[in-house]
Amino acid sequence: MDERLRVGLVGGGPWARSVHAPGLADHPGTTLTAVWTRRPEAARELADAHDAAVADTFDELLGRVDAVSFAVPPATQAELAILAAKAGKHVILEKPIAPDVVAAERLADAVTEAGVASLVMLTLRYSVETRDWLRAVGEAGGWTGGNARWLSGALLAGVYSGSPWRHDGGALADVGPHVFDLLDAALGRIVRVAGAHRTADDLVHVIFEHENDVTSSASLSMRVPVRPTVAEFAVYGQHGYRALNRKPGGGAAESYTALLDDFAAMIATGTRAHSCDVRRGLHLQRILDEVREAVYHA
């Protein structure tokens, strides 16, 4: 790109401070132009740290930028991202993209109708290790099953333990999209939730049916006292067993840089389809809502 993309950041929490803001400020294709949050003091602190402006209102932010990056709870994101898309702004979305399927469909439709670029921050999907693993798995084929485990103590202590939306949504809302996305990408489209169970302390087990008679299982919790986080994925079939482990620290900064590489390229070339665009977010929202239905209304 001849000029750096002007990006506004919505949100001032730990994830915005540690990943979004430095990523946007340091990337050669973007500049962190303005910050807006519903807490002016948080916006000021974050903007001052990265030489960005503070927007007094969301509308003011939209008037200053070409794109908006969201680091806010799902319900807030869906509401504001629809307005951003309708204003012709490209969007970087967190997962899950909305609180439910209805809101996710409205957001996906708004992005499509506006013709803007969109990417969802599915952290693992942008890492080199994951891309290489998925490529090798896809080239080999012949997989009949798979499993995943994502276990952490993030809601017991640490920077995210005070997050209300994470406590409300639990592991399903926060890490579920990551887990479901990789199983789906590795083994084929998930077509049905065959079973699901959630314990009182938020340990969730799910069984999926994929297209082509493939099955997989997942276990996830954010209330297990382990460090570092256990995030393991595996597929098995006629070519044996292929595993992928999330590296300690998660590599969020590197993944966000890779996301911005793709985002800037999409905008420069007029490309709107991507394996992690808003339609992917909608597909994952549908899976998430089906799992919730199975867990809470069995």
- Rounded to the nearest angstrom, the radius of gyration is 19 Å
Mean pLDDT metric: 96
| CATH architectural label of the largest domain | 3-Layer(aba) Sandwich
CATH topology of the largest domain: Rossmann fold
How are the strands of the biggest sheet laid out side by side? Answer: 3-2-1-4-5-6
Question: What is the CATH class name of the largest domain?
Answer: Alpha Beta
DSSP E strands, number: 12
Low-confidence stretches: none
**Helicity range:** 40-55%
Helix and strand string, N-terminal first? Answer: EHEHEHEHEHEHEHHEEEEEHH
Distance between the termini: 51 Å
Structural class: alpha/beta
As a percent range, the share of strand residues is 15-25%
The number of domains is 2
Number of helices: 10
CATH evolutionary superfamily of the largest domain: NAD(P)-binding Rossmann-like Domain
Largest sheet: 6 strands, parallel
Instruction: Specify the overall morphology.
Output: globular
General description of the model:
The chain has 298 residues and is an alpha/beta fold. It contains ten helices and twelve strands. The protein has helices at 14-26, 40-49, 58-64, 74-86, 101-114, 128-140, 164-174, 176-187, 252-269, 278-296; strands spanning 5-10, 30-36, 53-54, 67-70, 90-93, 118-120, 143-151, 190-198, 204-210, 215-221, 230-237, 240-245. Helix 1 crosses helix 9 and helix 8 (176-187) packs across helix 10 (278-296). The longest helix has 19 residues, at 278-296. It folds into two domains: 5-122 and 252-275, Rossmann fold; 128-248, Dihydrodipicolinate Reductase, domain 2. The termini are far apart. The mean pLDDT is 96. The protein has a six-stranded parallel beta sheet, with helices on both faces. The radius of gyration is 19 Å and the shape is globular. It holds the Pfam family GFO_IDH_MocA_C3. Residues 5-117 form the Gfo/Idh/MocA-like oxidoreductase N-terminal domain.
